[in-house]
């Protein structure tokens, strides 16, 4: 496994990343963190994804980590820049946590997994307070609360084609996320609950890793069958 840092260059901005390259490549994956996170938080998940043969790119979103831009409504462009870079290695999977899960599910990736995705258009005062106190200090943004303005401007997730989207969430997740994910279960969406997982640790748990890998293997298997038609 080759692991190295790379700056992905795009139109007027650069996306810091860490790339995992397996010896035998069967496609690619882009992995993105949530609000107040960083690419370094997602390295454990990235390694497990790369082990099944996906060249895996973990990035810093604007306003986070080594990214030089402040958080703003162009945040999806960071993920799309990484997807574009990965296209030369085959079909691209998008995997993200929280805000990153929302971005993965609305991105141009061929298949997406949202881990505790922030699908809601609004969150309660208590959730906003916790995010501000626990995660906000890690983010470079023009003003406090910019996250909520960015969230309002992101497009909603289209679940019409459920075969290309999957969701994993925790039984002890953010209340708004639990409620919305439970409602999606009735619409035949691919939704998996991880028992006892919290919003803050779900992307580090072995049960989550196993669920992600299982979903990816199913997707890759179906994709190969489709390619042979």
TrEMBL record:
In terms of Pfam families, this protein maps to: Abhydrolase_6
Carries keyword Hydrolase?
yes
Q: Which UniProt keywords apply?
A: Hydrolase
List residues of the AB hydrolase-1 domain: 30-126
What is this protein's record name?
A: Alpha/beta fold hydrolase
GO molecular function, one example? Answer: hydrolase activity
**Superkingdom as given in the UniProt entry:** Bacteria
